[in-house]
Design a protein that fits this description.
The protein is mostly helical and 180 residues long. It has two domains: 115 residues, Orthogonal Bundle (Rna Polymerase Sigma Factor, Chain: A), CATH 1.10.1740; 64 residues, Winged helix-like DNA-binding domain superfamily/Winged helix DNA-binding domain (Arc Repressor Mutant, subunit A), CATH 1.10.10. Helix 1 packs across helix 2, helix 2 packs across helix 4 and helix 5 packs antiparallel against helix 6. This is RNA polymerase sigma-70 factor, ECF subfamily. Belongs to the sigma-70 factor family. ECF subfamily.
Amino acid sequence: MITEAQLVANLKSESTRHVAFNELVSQYKERLYWHIRHIVKSHDDTDDVLQNTFIKIYRNINSFKGDSKLFSWMYRIATNEALTFINKRAKQMQVSNEEVQNLAIQNMQSDVYFEGEAIQLKLQRAIAKLPEKQQLVFNMKYFQDLKYKDMSEILETSEGALKASYHIAVKKVEDYLLND
């Protein structure tokens, strides 16, 4: 297995960029897919956002300074792309971001790639009611089991703030699931 430093060096070199990028995609595609999917909800929209994410990564790899892990840098790009997608969709539809997510959740039932049951739809509705930052923190911790240290790099927030956000988000989700 190639080290992250070597992968970055290969991505920045013209002679090895193509092969290194294919390696990067195969290594991170699934993790980034699920990260984005938990934000935008729809499989088709996730594929679009994932493609845009990899395009941005490819175009901007030379600006990666190595201050954080490559993984964190890519997650930050994926997060920003997903949020930008939701914002654009909300503007196009002239509705709030929450309404965009609620529509996506309603459409999940007819999505051939969604294998969930009623309780999972209810959980998605509860998450959609959270403020944006709490949604991100909840999804990253609950679904992806990311460490607060990694989340801190991705979201550029202190670990303490993330722990507090997650705790508050869990309480809100529990209240919604128990009282709705």
